[in-house]
Structures are given as C-alpha cells and as structure tokens.
Amino acid sequence: MILTNHIVLFEPLIPANTGNIARTAAATNSVLHLIRPLGFEVDDKHLRRAGLDYWASVNIVYHDSLEDFLATVPDQRYLYLITKFADETYSDRDLSATDVDHYFLFGKETTGLPEPFMRANPEKALRIPMTDKVRALNLSNCAALVVYEALRQQRFAGLETTHTYPHDKLK
C-alpha cells in the first residue's frame, strides 16, 4: 500500500511561495496543509498564477492552528520539522517507508516554526544544509527538495517515471 507525503506550511505569508508549493504538491501527489493565519487570501492572483492550472489538482487541507494540525497526524514518528537549526540533514533520515504518511512541516517565511515547539521536538528536526551567506532558502525550494528526497527514497512510488513529448502523441 502506498500512502502519501504531506507538505505542511505553518502560517505562510507569501502567496507566490504557496502557489509554487501547490504546483509541487500536484506534481508529486502530495497533500498540501495550510495552517492559519495565512498572510494572503486563497483567491490571491499571485497564488493562483504561481499554481497555474494545477490549483484544482491539489488536495489542500486547512487547519486553524498548529495544535489542530497536530491532532490530525496519525503517527507523530513520521512528522518532520524542516529547519536550519538541526543536527540531522533531511537526506540522512530514512524516508523510504511507503506504508505510512510522511508529514514535512515548514515554518513561516520570516520566523520559521515557533521556538518552544522546536525545542520540545528536537528529534523531529531535519536541516537543509547551506552556507552562512544567506539567511534561508526560498520556502518553495525547500519544500521541493525535501519532498523529492522522500520520493527518491520511496523509489518515486506512484509517479510516472517516463513521459512522451506532446508531439509523439500526434503520430
């Protein structure tokens, strides 16, 4: 049985980031969770433009708070907090299980995840390595890195591995 990867955004602020992440969710059959408050309206033109035609293909779940979201995670062992403040890198964690749902929780663009929550759950924290020359990577890039690493470890279960060019279909 193949279950799902979940991309979870804690209080996202930038509509274009969320739109790009929605496109990644559509491309990877991932569920997108948005934890309120959001820094934009879901009908924002920048959000829709970034998601393009894929918005209708995304399974989006809204949560009123971090606590509400956490109550929906069936097995907390498969909840991962993505941060730059962790010892273990995301690619070192075994994400290969395809019989459980994996939840990747990303913080707000400006402040990340709440510090008390992070301090209470250090074993769940995974780091994306980077130099000290930048404060952080773009949120949509981080989501793509992590979900595709999980899919790589899962042997891209549930995804097409080959495509034909549109002109090939005309023959």
TrEMBL record:
Keywords: Cytoplasm, Methyltransferase, S-adenosyl-L-methionine, Transferase, tRNA processing
Coiled-coil annotated residue ranges, if any: none
One Gene Ontology MF term: RNA binding
Primary localization: cytoplasm
Reaction(s) the record says it catalyses: cytidine(34) in tRNA + S-adenosyl-L-methionine = 2'-O-methylcytidine(34) in tRNA + S-adenosyl-L-homocysteine + H(+); 5-carboxymethylaminomethyluridine(34) in tRNA(Leu) + S-adenosyl-L-methionine = 5-carboxymethylaminomethyl-2'-O-methyluridine(34) in tRNA(Leu) + S-adenosyl-L-homocysteine + H(+)
Enzyme Commission number(s) from the entry: 2.1.1.207
Family per record: Belongs to the class IV-like SAM-binding methyltransferase superfamily. RNA methyltransferase TrmH family. TrmL subfamily.
HAMAP family, alphabetized: tRNA_methyltr_TrmL
Name of the featured protein: Putative tRNA (cytidine(34)-2'-O)-methyltransferase
Naturally occurring in which organism (per UniProt): Lacticaseibacillus nasuensis JCM 17158
